Amino acid sequence: MTRQSPARPTDKFDDDDYPAYTMGRAAEMIGTTPAFLRAVGEARLIVPLRSEGGHRRYSRYQLRIAARARELVDQGTPVEAACRIVILEDQLEEALRVNEELRRSAAGSGQAPGA
C-alpha cells in the first residue's frame, strides 16, 4: 500500500480554481466595483464560493472571466449581454478544442473525421 504525500499549503497558490480572493480584493484586482461582481454573479457568469461566514470568495479563473465581461461592459455592452457573450465564447473555445482532439484522434487511427 502506498501512502500519498500530504498536499503542501503552497499548492493552493498554483490552483486557478482556489477561491482565494474576497469580493473587495477581487474587484480591486480587475478594476471594478463589488456591485459589478454581484451583477455578473446574478447573471450566473461566475458563482463565487462562500466562506464559512457567508462572504463571497473568488478564484483567479473566475476573475479572468469577470475581467473579460468588464472589457465588454466598458465598450458599452449591457452586463447581461456581456455575460452571455463570455459564456458563448467559452462554449465555442471548448467545442473547438474537442473538435481538434477528435481530428487528431481520427488522423492517428487512419479514419476520416466523421466516418
UniProtKB/TrEMBL annotation:
Q: Which residues form a coiled coil?
A: none
Top-rank taxon: Bacteria
- Give the Gene3D superfamilies listed for this entry: 1.10.1660.10
One Gene Ontology biological process: regulation of DNA-templated transcription
| Stored InterPro entries | DNA-bd_dom_put_sf, MerR-type_HTH_dom
> Which Pfam family is an annotated match for this chain, by its short name?
MerR_1
Stretches assigned to the HTH merR-type domain: 20-88
Query: From the UniProt record, which GO molecular function terms apply?
Result: DNA binding
Q: What is this protein called?
A: MerR family transcriptional regulator
Organism field: Streptomyces lydicus
